[in-house]
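Q: I have 536 residues here and want to know how they pack in 3D. Can you give me a structure?
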Amino acid sequence: MSTTSLTALALAVLLATHTAAAERRVVVSGGRPEAAQYVGAAWSETDGGLSAEGVGRFLYADRGLGSGDFRITARLTLARLEGTAASFVLDGSHLGFDGRGKQLFAEGPLFGGATRALGASEAWVRPGQPFTFEAIRQGGTTRFLVDGREVTRREHWDGPVARTGFRPQRNRMTVQEFQMSGNLTVPPAAPKPLGTPVFIGGQFGYDTYRIPALAVTNAGTVLAVCEGRRHSDSDSGDIDLLLRRSVDNGQTWAEQQVIWDDAGNTCGNPCLVVDRDTGVIWLLVTWNRGDDHEPRIIDQTSHDTRRVYVCHSENDGLAWSKPSEITASTKLPAWTWYATGPGSGIQLQHGAHRGRLVIPCDHIEAGTKRYLSHVIYSDDHGATWQLGGTSPRDRVNECEVVELSDGRLMLNMRNYDRTKRSRQIAFSDDGGQTWRDQRFDATLIEPICQAAVDRCGDVLLFSNPASAAERIRLTVRASFDDGSTWPRSHLLYAGPSGYSDLAVLANGEIGCLYECGVVRSTEDIVFARLALDELQ
């Protein structure tokens, strides 16, 4: 009998010995799909099995799992064990067969949220060699095994799972067998995001679009800017800055145009601000070499470092100036990593600093490696840019800024202090030159993600994935007391969602540009419109 037949027989025996009440589902048999669903693109039938490679491609069972015991068994092969994140997927959680540093890993809500290393990949999996993976839940204990050896387990969990399957994620994965048994359920229909896709992953030569920035010009034109990531969803590599314009409040969009393409280097972290006095649109961005990754920049072992640039448009976003470097006046020598925004800045409307352009930023200190938020500003309509104040405490980074009704500024910051799973805020009485009273806003829960804040008349607006555990539930909130409370909200999308930005449209509606997808939060960038009274 062949090895393949023996493997199939062994799987059948394992499933047959499972509880008699369990339903059985064969998803892939002999390398051929029987009850499989694809997300991203179809997998190919090859001599070795059902294969796919790259990012954004998933192979799912067409059934979910209810409460109670279950067994999932698969036979698969990975082409390599380097620089990948190939994994078994349970809704938004992953048991990965290789991650950074060639480590097996667990991440997502099922495993406590943060990525956890589980040991060297090569001790469990060999590139090009088939292995058997199992996930078995019995009596509230879920065990995950590779070739019969337990990798990790989850205790006291008996919840349902809507989607189970595999992703190659920067690898080539081949699935020969994939079977499941237990309390099988029909997955609910995927929720649909509110709005219209503006940037769709995989189109126009870009693997992934990320990091939305939104602004409305004096003429009422809506500007949607983002990063176009050429070859993968990675934060490094060949990344360009892209723009789409709308002259009808986001109902239709002009063709995509490139603002900055610096060969294979990284041009990103867009942050827009419109000078209402002059009509000039300013775009603050950061740059680094495409072969310099964030950890090396932080450790100061990179070829170069993060640099700060600015460009502008004087004709409503139709054409843009060549980016000019402003690193010397906006970044201290002791800072390593640096990011503008992302999203949008503001122009002050009140007080002694009226007319000042303020851009939210963040940085990491050399040596201490402390994460901090700060701002930069211009008092001469963008001709020069200066370094403003830094957050009093660390463990914060990506941020946005808003002017309050009394002229103070509020900085709203991504929070890395996981004792409190909510945003951090700080205040300035001097136009952003110093910051004080840093604290948590318990209402604004977050899963560690960028967020947006803006003003619509007397109302403050806020958007982010409204979850303490994962990037889902993109929600817009409203405050009528300068952010002391947030009593009203509107859910734009219940599914995977990430970065966002807000702007007030010429017709008075709220515009939100946000990342979302069916399986991962970075599949597309969508533009949504809603009236203030839609927030309940």
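Q: Anything worth noting?
A: Residues 284 and 336 are 18 Å apart (CA to CA). The first helix runs from residue 3 to 16.
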